[in-house]
């Protein structure tokens, strides 16, 4: 029956973890997947999360099904975290929202909702490059995928001019996916002034901005600062959509806690949109998983745990920034690389787009057991003070 099913390729990011696991060299480094590690290279469960788990255990809660749109205390706290307490649409109760299977599930719910109901377009514009999964998620949601210019290889920075041109040249009411902060894979974000201009042009063109916020807090260490673009768009009056993930900033990867939300014009319209979100979720998975949402709602809803969590977010972000400094320093001052490595410290968030070519990536993996994606992206969270110098030597060796 299945003889004609073709073998599919491994996922370009998750496939790297598999290759890494099969390598027995003690010096091996996994810089592929974007998952935080502490300075001894171990997965890190946040202390605020551990305490929330204790409280949940003490409270002896039941395990009943959640409603289709999830745990209300979670989606409400999550909206507050993203939009901020002064958000007008939040205060006016016109943000439709649902819990989702982390950020990926949120993108998929959003993609499907747009594909069903957005009256003006069936095409979504993604930045070049973008997170590899965006393409597949939106295609499988029934949307056509197109791209807009974002990264300039020659400056290893933002192609702001190209971006603005593409925004202006797209048909009115086009759908644009924007990374809210800590762009994956480039680590290049627009400045505040650039965001303001992007918002203006999107307004003029009446485009529909869909924010993917997978790293709130990971860029600057401050969740409010990292919400700048999102909140600016909201205060400029855009009716944005938002995919929000707690995988990275709360370390809840496998718990799959996230939300999808969308701003509507009125509480009545919100109710209608909520009803359709439920209708599209019900045949997919009925209702979302309880545990991660419960943990996040305890962390967000308890002021002590919340404070502790925010300081842990800062700690993770700071460790990554320290690794950027050390990596650049070793390259420039110790191993004597003649290339400019400023982009390592200029870039933001979990990743650095090193500029390594696919051939150099192949060599660094084969000869140095350093695993990263073909596009030259490294996850800085996979580096520690013990192996950062080794990495600098390896990079130097393949880029000589
Ligand atoms: N969007 C971007 C840009 C990401 O980098 C990720 C995770 O790496 C996600 C969304 C979604 O991740 P998750 O489904 O684990 O929340
Ligand atoms: O490193 C990245 O960009 C992500 C990580 O279900 C990831 O692809 C891994 C698993 C998953 C979602 C994201």
From TrEMBL:
The protein's required cofactors: pyridoxal 5'-phosphate
Keyword Transferase: yes
PROSITE patterns: AA_TRANSFER_CLASS_1
Reactions accelerated catalytically: L-aspartate + 2-oxoglutarate = oxaloacetate + L-glutamate
Cellular-component GO terms for this entry: mitochondrion
MF terms (GO), sorted A to Z: L-aspartate:2-oxoglutarate aminotransferase activity; pyridoxal phosphate binding
UniProt EC number: 2.6.1.1
Top EC category: transferase
Keyword field: Aminotransferase, Pyridoxal phosphate, Transferase
The keyword Transcription appears for this protein: no
Transmembrane segments: none
GO biological process, one term: L-aspartate catabolic process
Aminotransferase class I/classII large domain boundaries: 27-395
Assembly and interaction partners: Homodimer.
Family classification: Belongs to the class-I pyridoxal-phosphate-dependent aminotransferase family.
Miscellaneous comment text of the record: In eukaryotes there are cytoplasmic, mitochondrial and chloroplastic isozymes.
Protein name: Aspartate aminotransferase
């Amino acid at each position: 029956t299945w003889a004609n099913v073709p073998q599919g390729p491994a996922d370009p990011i998750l496939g790297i973890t598999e290759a890494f696991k099969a390598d027995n060299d003690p010096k091996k480094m996994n810089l592929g997947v974007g998952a935080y590690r502490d300075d001894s290279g171990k997965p890190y469960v946040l202390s605020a999360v551990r305490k929330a788990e204790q409280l949940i255990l003490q409270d002896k809660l039941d395990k009943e099904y959640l409603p289709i749109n999830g745990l209300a205390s979670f989606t409400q706290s999550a909206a507050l975290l993203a939009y901020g307490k002064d958000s007008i649409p939040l205060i006016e109760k016109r943000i439709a929202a649902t819990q989702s299977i982390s950020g990926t599930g949120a993108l998929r719910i959003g993609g499907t909702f747009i594909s069903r109901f957005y009256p003006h377009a069936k095409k979504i514009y993604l930045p070049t490059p973008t997170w590899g999964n965006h393409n597949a998620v939106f295609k499988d949601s029934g949307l056509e995928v197109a791209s807009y210019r974002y990264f300039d290889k020659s400056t290893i920075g933002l192609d702001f001019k190209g971006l603005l041109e593409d925004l202006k040249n797209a048909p009115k009411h086009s759908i644009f996916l924007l990374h809210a902060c800590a762009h994956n894979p480039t680590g290049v974000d627009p400045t505040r002034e650039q965001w303001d201009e992007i918002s203006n042009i999107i307004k003029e063109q009446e485009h529909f901005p869909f924010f993917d916020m997978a790293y709130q807090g990971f860029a600057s260490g401050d969740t409010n600062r990292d919400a700048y673009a999102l909140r600016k768009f909201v205060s400029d009056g855009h009716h944005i959509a938002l995919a929000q993930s707690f995988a990275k900033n709360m370390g809840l990867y496998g718990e799959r806690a996230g939300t999808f939300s969308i701003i509507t014009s009125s509480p009545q319209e919100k109710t209608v949109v909520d009803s359709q979100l439920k209708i599209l979720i019900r045949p997919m998975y009925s209702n979302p998983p309880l545990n991660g949402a419960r943990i996040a709602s305890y962390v967000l809803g308890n002021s002590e745990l919340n404070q502790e969590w925010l300081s842990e977010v800062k700690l993770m972000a700071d460790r990554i920034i320290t690794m950027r400094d050390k990596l650049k320093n070793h390259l420039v001052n110790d191993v004597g690389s003649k290339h400019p490595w400023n982009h390592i410290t200029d870039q933001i968030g979990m990743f650095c787009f090193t500029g390594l070519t696919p051939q150099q990536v192949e060599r660094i993996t084969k000869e140095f057991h350093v695993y990263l994606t073909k596009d030259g992206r490294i996850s800085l969270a996979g580096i520690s003070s013990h192996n950062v110098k080794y990495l600098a030597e390896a990079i130097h060796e393949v880029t000589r």
